[in-house]
Structures are given as structure tokens and as C-alpha cells.
Amino acid sequence: MKKIVHVLLYGLLLAVVLTGIMGITHFIEKEDQRVEQEAERLLAAKKAAAENEADNSKTIQSENVRTVLVKKLPVYKEKKIVKIKADNDAEMLSYGDEVTLLEEDSLYAKIETKSGQKGYVWGDCIGLQAESAQTGQQFQAVVIDVEVLQEEQDEPEYTAQETICFNIARNLEKRLKERGYTVVMGKRAIEDAVSNAKIAELANQIQADAVVRVCTGYNTDPEVHGAAAYCCPRDSSYPAGAFADDSQKLGKKILRYYTKTTGFTSAGVLESDAFAGIRRSKVPVIVLNMGYLSNDKENSKMSGQKFQAKMAKGIADGLDAYFLWKQKEQAASS
Fold first, then answer.
1. Which among 127, 221, 312, 325 counts the fewest CB atoms within 10 Å?
2. How far apart are CA 127 and CA 121, in angstroms?
3. C-alpha distance from residue 156 to each of 152, 162, 181, 304 (Å)
């Protein structure tokens, strides 16, 4: 009897042990599955996060991609226009090249080129790809700068000249962009201390198609009035002399449409290499005296916003006429 009891007890104990072992095994299997599933979930989450980060990075990078809008564009090491020499290691970009925009201010943009070089370029010379798709006309880049003349002026007149000139420059920029031009501004405010000679150097480097420097005149004789365009003489020893013919034509076309739109009289195209922005130029360039602030009638007109819009339109129409002439000349010679 005792044997039977012992056998039963041992059997029961064995069954309990086996049940425990099976339970532990089942628990371990379940725990292994849970750990495996959690690891897969974490791996999937990390993969999704990495893909999302990559997509965001691509989006940000895509948003910061800019296209070169001028024929040639040097990459400067600093925010400074410098001469590019043959032995200079600066990278020279070309029209249509893509760069990544890193940061920008009112004049310069810090970029990274496809070769990995980082540096600074003139901000107006790069833009979104859509801005570079100029249709209906030959590619043209125009530099606009303000030539502020201080000739025996008091501070109020000098300030008025600055205000008018920058208003015209900004208005002209807007109109030309609407017409498909690439517009490069030499200055956006009087605080932008970039010399006329430096802007001429920039225009040379980007191979601008034309440079228009706007100013207003001031004379001790209040009866002096009218508009005039200044360009380099043909026989000048300065580099601009080689482009005098095109500069003369540029001045004539702009004066014709400017005076037609504003009603101002024309003093014609005058030869002068007294302006640094003209002397250093290796592209067609004029200084346009839009009128005299010392003349009450012209001062009153030029101070009005609606009339300033007319002034800008006249200059833009003159540029259209100049480039149309230029295209016909090139077609005839080809």
C-alpha cells in the first residue's frame, strides 16, 4: 500500500515538475517572441525615423538649391569683391550651375558648390531655378547701381537725391524682372558701402550685358534742367573705351524712351570718363542723370511716387530697345 502511495506521490510530483518545466518553457518562448517583436518594432521605428529625416533633409536641401543666373560668377572667400587672377584658386561658376544656399544677407550669399567649396557670391546672381528660365528673349543680365553726386549740396538735398535714386533703382529692378531680365543691384541702401569701382569689377566678372547707374543732378543755377547720359569716350585709355560704341547706343536708347515718358528735355549722350563706375567697366555702361533737383519743376515731379514709376518705365523701355538693337546687330553679323 505504501509503495502505491509513494508511486502516486512521485508521479504527482513528477507531473507538477513537468508542468512547471512546460510552463517555464512556454513563458520563455513567449518572452523570446515578445523581445523579438519589440526589437523588430524598434528597428522599424528607427528605419522610419531615418527615412523621415532623410526626406526632410532632401526637402530642406531642395529648398536651398539655387541656380546661377549670370554668365560667370566667382566664389569669394570673404564678403568682398576681389579681382580674379589667373592663379587664383577661387571657383568660377557658370550660368545654370546649381549651388546650395547656406545663408544670405542684403548683398551676399554664402553657398556650397557641387565640388564642396564654400564661399560667398553676390546674392542677386543666384536664384530659384524658375527665375532662370528666361523665355521669349535672349538671356540678359543688367546691373543697376546708384551714383550719388554731392555737388555743392546741403544735407536735405543730398538726402532727397538718395531717396529718389534708390526708389527708381528698386522700381526699375521690379519692372525688369517682370520682363524676364536678371537684375543685379549694386546697392540696396546708402548704408551698403560698396564703391562704384567695386561694382564695376563685379559687372565685369559676371559679364553683365549692360550697366545703368542712375543719379540726379544738382546745379547752382536753378534754370539748368533736363536728362543726360554719360559714357566713356571712344579714344579713352581706360578699359571702357573699347565698349564706347555700345555704351553710346545704350545711352541714346534709354534717353529717347526716358524723355518720351517723363517729358524732360534731353541733353544727349555726353562723353566722360570722370566716373569710376565708367572708367573700370569692361561692359556697356552709362551714368544716367535723370534730372536736376536744383530745378524746382523737375524736383517737384521726381519727388512723386507716380512720376518715379514713369521714370523707371522709361529706363526699362530704353533697355528693351537697346537689347532689340543688339540682337539685330548680332544676327546681321552672324
1. 221
2. 12
3. 12, 10, 34, 17
Does the pTM surpass 0.70? The reply is yes
- Count how many Cα atoms sit within 13 Å of the Cα of residue 109 in the half-sphere of its side chain: 21
Burial (0-12, 13-18, 19+ Cβ within 10 Å), 24: exposed
Could you tell me if 176 and 243 are in contact, meaning their C-beta atoms sit under 8 angstroms apart?
Answer: no
Residue burial 115-136, b: 16+ Cβ < 10 Å; e: rest: eeeebbbbbbbbbeeeebeeee
pLDDT tens readout for residues 63-86: 899 999 999 999 999 999 998 876
**pLDDT, tens digit, 9 for 90 and up, residues 163-177:** 899 999 999 999 999
* 293-305: b (≥16 Cβ within 10 Å) or e: bbbeebbebbeee
Q: DSSP secondary-structure letter at 303? A: T
* Residue 23 Cα distances to 9, 20, 74, 109, 204, angstroms: 21, 5, 76, 69, 86
